[in-house]
Amino acid sequence: MQPVWPHKSCPVPYVLLAVMPDILKPDLCIVGAGALGISLAIKARQRGLATVLIDRGAEPGDAVGGPIRRAAFVASAMHAHAIRTGARLGLENSMPKINFRAVADHARGVAAATASGTSAERLSALGIAVLTGEPGFIDGLTLRVGDSLLKAGHFLLATGAAPLVPDIPQIENISFFTPDTIPDNTRKLSHLLVVGGAATGLELAQAYRRLGSDVTLVPHGPLLDGYDREATAILLRQLREEGLVVLDGARVSSFQPRSQGIGIALEQAHGQTGSLDVSHVLVAAGRVPDLDWTASDKVRLRRRPASAAHLQLNAWGRTSSARISAFGGAAGEGNHHRALLAGERLLDSLAGRRPSRAYGRNGLPTLVHTQPALAQTGATDTPGGLKPGQAVLRANMNENDAARALGLGLGSAKLVVDRGGRILGGAMVGEGAGEAMASLAMAMGRGVRAAELARLPLAGTSALAVLQELGNQLANQLPASNWSKRRAALRRLLP
């Protein structure tokens, strides 16, 4: 189209407005309309930030309902296990009748009910502008989506992560599930092989075992890497008692497709080899950030030296570009709640609020949704051992009234404290582990000393009383103050 001149004296031509791209200048542009992106968009509007949300379609991990759908499936498995083990509470043990289609429909219904709160209509009513299309940076400050250009004050990447498929011979010749696709399964799996030692793999492995499947878990690398070793050992003992086969230290060396089932060649610990016949395979070996769309000469975001698939980020989620941050799967973080808390710190900063410094990157609690659950916060395992003045406090869940009343007394909790009683970290496996570690993380952020946990104001019987027990242990070790000693000496001098 030829430029149109409004007047002979005008030195600059302009094109018709109809062919000019829209230029939006919001405070914040969030790329990725999955569960994390939507949650952060809503929280950004609550802070008064003009927000645009880019919907690329189903983000990896959200296409099947994400964590909520998986949590509903795990809850069904927990109820089946409770029916099977009712004798521990004075009831008769029974064999539950499992209808996998009904279980899958229930999980799908729970996910659908939560999705209504994130509809386009509700987001629009909250003042969030939603653009649909595949985005692309045209420079470090501008993003193009269809015919629209965005020059946002800040860009937040919440594009999720796709399941990692390990390079195992013959894997391309078999059909396998991933954590994103297995919720669509509606029939019993006679023998499920779970490849991967991350939290999601253990959660699904226990759930399928409780729903009647034979399950073998091959970590194919570290098992619950980054989690406390003591707590992990207690959890594994419980999983094995339920009949889950965990081949710790083993790897899958190859798959062997067959007309009926799948053959597995194994490399076990200490150089031994073995084989296994299974009916189905779940690959839960981790996730890879969905960042291919950022691979452009227009914006060069640095990657981690040890892993080119991950962005190099600071403790606040900032990339090498001061105006671009990443959270959740895009940042290599698999825990939704940790990503949400970290993202909120950025939103506070953008809104001119003082960001909460209650949690550092290592202070946010992590949780494995098994039963018993495993949770931790801060530093618990120190490769070089305890430093001078540091100590470990431990408590057994068999002594917790709430856990014993529920028949769930297996587990333990521990705290790592320094010479002055400051809490460095904690880990717990057992009933209420997630809530206990969340409370502990808040206490750490507020500078609460371990001895003060003894005065935790609990209402009634609670699994969190384990924190009181840990606090009492330290309080009982503290020496009396000089004033108390002088007062006691004075009393002895009085007639």
User: What is the CATH architecture assignment of the largest domain?
Assistant: 3-Layer(bba) Sandwich
Q: What kind of sheet is the major sheet?
A: 5 strands, parallel
Unreliable segments of 5+ consecutive residues: 1-19
Q: How many structural domains can be distinguished in the coordinates?
A: 3
Summarize the structure.
With 495 residues, the protein is an alpha/beta fold. The chain contains 11 helices and 25 strands. The N terminus is likely disordered.
Q: Key features?
A:
single chain, 495 residues, alpha/beta, FAD/NAD(P)-binding domain, Enolase-like, domain 1, 3 domains, five-stranded parallel sheet, five-stranded antiparallel sheet, 11 helices, globular
Q: Could you characterize the architecture of this molecule?
A:
By secondary structure, this protein is α/β, with parallel strands linked by helices. It has 3 domains: 23-63 and 105-163 and 288-350, 3-Layer(bba) Sandwich (FAD/NAD(P)-binding domain), CATH 3.50.50; 171-285, FAD/NAD(P)-binding domain, CATH 3.50.50; 372-477, FAD/NAD-linked reductase, C-terminal dimerisation domain (Enolase-like, domain 1), CATH 3.30.390. It is 27% helix and 22% strand. The protein contains 11 helices and 25 strands. It has helices at 35-46, 66-84, 100-115, 120-125, 199-210, 229-241, 336-350, 401-405, 433-445, 465-477, 482-493; strands at 22-24, 28-31, 51-55, 129-132, 135-139, 142-145, 148-150, 154-157, 161-163, 191-195, 214-218, 245-246, 251-257, 262-267, 273-278, 280-283, 287-289, 303-304, 307-311, 324-326, 366-368, 374-378, 391-396, 412-417, 423-429. The chain has a 5-stranded parallel sheet with strand order 4-3-2-8-20. Strands 21-22-25-24-23 form a 5-stranded antiparallel sheet, with helices on both faces. Strands 1-7-6-5 form a 4-stranded mixed sheet, with no helix packed on it. Helix 1 packs parallel to helix 7, helix 2 crosses helix 3 and helix 2 crosses helix 5 (199-210). The longest helix is centred in the first third of the chain and has 19 residues, at 66-84. Mean pLDDT is 86; it is low at 1-19.
